[in-house]
Amino acid sequence: MFQPPSGAPDATDPPSNPPVVPPGETCLAQERCGRRSTISGASELVAVLGDPLRHTLSPAMHNAALQELGLDWVYMALRTPPGRLAAVLEGLGAVECRGLNITLPHKAEAAQLAQELSPLAARLGAVNTLVPRAEGGWFGTNTDVEGFLAPLRSCGVPWQGQQALVLGNGGSARAIVAALAELGMAPILVAGRRQENLDRLLQACRGWAPTLEGVAWSENDLRPALGGSTLVVNTTPMGMARSGDPEPTATPLGPWDLDALPPGATIYDLIYTPRPTALLQQAIARGCRTIDGLEMLVQQGAAALRLWTGLGEVPVAVMREAALHQLAIQSPGPP
Predict the structure, then answer these.
(1) Catalytic residue at 179?
(2) What confidence score (pLDDT) does residue 240 get?
(3) What is the pTM of this model?
(4) 26 strand-pairing partners
(5) Which domains occur in the chain, in start order?
(6) Catalytic residue selected from 62, 98, 106, 107
(7) How many CB atoms lie within 10 A of CB 132?
(8) SS3 for 76?
(9) What's the CA gap between 201 and 177, in Å, rounded?
(10) DSSP letter assigned to residue 9
């Protein structure tokens, strides 16, 4: 049975001063946060596994938090090609890695490889966080739902009983449906361009999201769905900045679609490059409340860090600052 780790410093303890680097050890300058950290012979490892990982913000975000907490841990991005996840997990377990984030394309496979799953991860069939078990192997859970919900819970809107519309039926849509069901939103509509994928999502989720309904991605169906929705969530990659296209103008909804929204609607785009996306720019011009995916990234990372360390509180503001700084200095590209 999974139990949180013990022995981590209390979150209220002040961070330790940057140590003097002894000969033979590596110093990592962290100019983005004005901090310095060291890797010693006793440093513990945490990491993110995925492919590609070139533009991930997670190392900057987590290493800033680890230093703030005074932990002699280092967080690394370990590119893990498809077909290699099982071997990588076995090796990292053997060297007593303290925790892992899992990102594309491995979330479903990680759920199959974990020796124990949280009820949420089992329901979603997807894992984004692994914690080592005392008896060996990995405990898998999913903090994407918690990360997604954090900005919604802090904005003071009574979401229960309100209609939500999810755009897209890909890998992230199932976690978003679970989050909206946890908020008590009803009905939850999902719009998809491919009927077979939409049917598959509905079949997988209706057992625990009974108010879930599918919507065809057509003007006749989408505009009425938008007109009754208090919250619209974009889970598609449309509008994401990429190399060679740092400011894309494509959006999953056009101005005509957005005009159908009720007053005071909230638009939540899981994309956070560029900031704001073209979709959110158009929504802002129409007076909508807008949220992008950066806060979801920060909050899901903070939830994972709490699991790895056993701490009740972690420095979320430090993580946010580091993620924003790293985002500002790196070249546009997929997260």
Answers:
(1) no
(2) 86
(3) 0.85
(4) 39
(5) 26-142+296-329 (3.40.50.10860), 145-292 (3.40.50.720)
(6) 107
(7) 19
(8) strand
(9) 10
(10) P
